[in-house]
Amino acid sequence: MLKPETDAEGYLIDPIDWSEEWAREKARELGIELTEDHWAAVRFMRAFQEEHHVAPDARFVMRHLSETRGAGRNRLFELFPYGYAGQACKLAGMKRPRAWSTG
């Protein structure tokens, strides 16, 4: 299997190349042990991007975790302590974000 192409910072060049297997490998590289809450965030982000053709703002992911997992507002940052853009977006196969509002 051919490894998807990433940029110098580890973001997928083409988000269509994403797979859960790729996300697991990237999580290992980032030192993240994926839990069901991680997957809930990542799968939501993938679905949002597919529907809206843009990566979701962090506040949408926080709301999703709150509504579906009963998580508090800070759960997203507990899951991805080194940043939404640097970890969550990378694992979800988003392109490198230019700027983010964390809501």
TrEMBL record:
<dbReference type="InterPro" id="IPR025526">
    <property type="entry name" value="DsrC-like_dom_sf"/>
</dbReference>
<dbReference type="InterPro" id="IPR042072">
    <property type="entry name" value="DsrC-like_C"/>
</dbReference>
<dbReference type="InterPro" id="IPR007453">
    <property type="entry name" value="DsrC/TusE"/>
</dbReference>
<protein>
    <submittedName>
        <fullName>TusE/DsrC/DsvC family sulfur relay protein</fullName>
    </submittedName>
</protein>
<keyword id="KW-0963">Cytoplasm</keyword>
<comment type="similarity">
    <text>Belongs to the DsrC/TusE family.</text>
</comment>
<dbReference type="InterPro" id="IPR043163">
    <property type="entry name" value="DsrC-like_N"/>
</dbReference>
<dbReference type="Pfam" id="PF04358">
    <property type="entry name" value="DsrC"/>
</dbReference>
